[in-house]
Write a structure and sequence with these properties.
It is built from eight helices and no strands. By secondary structure, the chain is mostly helical. Helix 5 runs antiparallel to helix 7. The longest helix is centred in the last third of the chain and has 35 residues.
Length: 208
């Protein structure tokens, strides 16, 4: 859907975020804010997004798959298999930190990521040009779209990163005064997020 209807894909993200938020508000009004209700709110957000996506992709299920396209997708699927161990390792960050250092370190790590993810959000916005890369095989147009994607990443990511560099302790202080000591960690995490946004954009261009 993202390749053929980017606006509808964006609306599906809106359904996820809005559904999750509405569910959280209901639980908050009912004074039932717990870990379980937080997970339920996220689940309801996913369900609302899935329902929207199914409503807009059901007609495609009745179409016969193109053999040439299916063969090409299967030939490239090996790359998705190769990256699975890396994704698995990445998902173990919180359990590893908790078991080796303690839950307090997890709290520091989570708060730092909350701000670092703001920097990496520039990558999500830059993907808006990804469908344009898939609609043509002309190298000049591909290069132009890639340059525009990188400009968007840098236009948003670099100012956010610079702002965090100078205000990291103050930002963390908003959550808890003790977190201000992790200012340097937040600076490094923000730099990593910016580099990840750039590499993610380049990776999408190569994959497309």
């Amino acid at each position: 859907l993202y390749a053929v209807g980017p606006s509808r894909a964006a609306i599906s993200e809106f359904f996820f975020e809005t559904g999750k938020l509405l569910a959280a508000i209901v639980f908050w009004l009912a004074t039932r804010i717990t870990l379980e209700t937080a997970l339920i709110a996220v689940l309801l957000g996913h369900l609302s997004q899935t329902a929207y996506l199914l409503a807009h992709t059901m007609p495609d299920f009745s179409k016969k798959p193109n053999r040439k396209t299916a063969k090409k997708i299967l030939s490239l699927s090996i790359f998705n298999v190769v990256i699975q161990p890396a994704l698995l390792i990445a998902s173990l960050d919180v359990p590893l930190i908790s078991s080796t250092i303690g839950n307090l370190a997890v709290a520091y790590y989570t708060v730092v990521n909350a701000f670092a993810n703001v920097v990496s959000y520039s990558y999500v916005l830059a993907r808006g040009l990804y469908p344009a890369m898939l609609q043509t095989d002309e190298e000049i147009i591909h290069r132009k779209n890639l340059e525009e994607s990188l400009r968007l990443v840098l236009l948003l990511g670099v100012p956010l990163f610079i702002g965090i560099v100078f205000t990291a302790p103050s930002l963390l202080y908003l959550f808890r005064p003790d977190y201000a000591h992790a200012g340097d960690v937040l600076r490094l995490a923000s730099l990593s997020a910016l580099l990840g946004a750039v590499s993610g954009t380049l990776g999408d261009a190569l994959q497309g």
